[in-house]
Amino acid sequence: MKEIGEKLKATREEMGISLDEAAEDLKISPSKIEELEEGKIEAFKDLFYLKYFIRDYSKYLGLKYEDMVNEFNEFLFDYTSKISLKDIKEAQKKNITKVEEERIASPYTVSVYQKPKIISKIIFAVTIVLILIITYLLVTSFNEKHDITDDSKIEAYIKVEGDYFV
């Protein structure tokens, strides 16, 4: 953050713009500009406000504000991340391939390859349910064809066979 502030201050001084003049043009207190130029991030309660302040101040000074905002985003990532940019860049340079157990577990590195396991469980459950339904239908249809507990069915069965038994 100090580098960003130093660039802004050096550019302002090279252009011959005073701190009060810049504050008046940007409608910001001189102390806020001074805190930004000194790199005091703690002085700003809202980081989004700080980002837009850097953008507007860079535009005012005629700098490439996109580059300044990108530099601030990199700083902010490094400032808030548990893995520093330096460590990430070193890992990229070494191009290390690690075993799955050695990987750092974070929401950004967790493998999403868990869906096929869930799908296979669902397919297995549906298959079991279908087998149970088919078994039930077969058993009930078999019982209906061979159910001879009703007296009228018994007489019809005996008549078909030819002989009457009482």
Topology as a string of helices (H) and strands (E) = HHHHHHHH
Uncertain runs are: none
The largest sheet, given as strand count, sense and whether it forms a barrel, is:
none
Tell how many strands the DSSP assignment holds.
Answer: 0
Mean residue pLDDT: 75
Kindly, what is the distance between the CA atoms of the first and last residues, rounded to a whole number of angstroms? 107 Å
Radius of gyration: 39 Å
Roughly what fraction of the amino acids lie in strands? under 5%
Number of domains: 2
Tell me the name of the CATH homologous superfamily of the largest domain: lambda repressor-like DNA-binding domains
User: Structural class, judged by helices and strands?
Assistant: mainly alpha
CATH architectural group of the largest domain: Orthogonal Bundle
What is the fold named in CATH at topology level of the largest domain?
434 Repressor (Amino-terminal Domain)
Briefly, what CATH class of the largest domain?
A: Mainly Alpha
Report the principal-axis shape: rod-shaped
Helix content, binned percent: 55-70%
Question: Main traits of this protein?
Answer:
166 residues; 434 Repressor (Amino-terminal Domain); 2 domains; mainly alpha
Describe this structure as you would to a colleague.
- There is one protein chain.
- With 166 residues, the chain is mostly helical.
- The protein folds into two domains: 2-101, lambda repressor-like DNA-binding domains (434 Repressor (Amino-terminal Domain)), CATH 1.10.260.40; 115-161.
- Helices cover 69% and strands 0% of the residues.
- The protein has helices at 2-15, 19-26, 30-38, 47-61, 65-80, 85-94, 115-145, 151-161.
- It is rod-shaped, with a radius of gyration of 39 Å.
- The chain starts with a helix and ends in a 5-residue tail after the last helix.
- The mean pLDDT is 75.
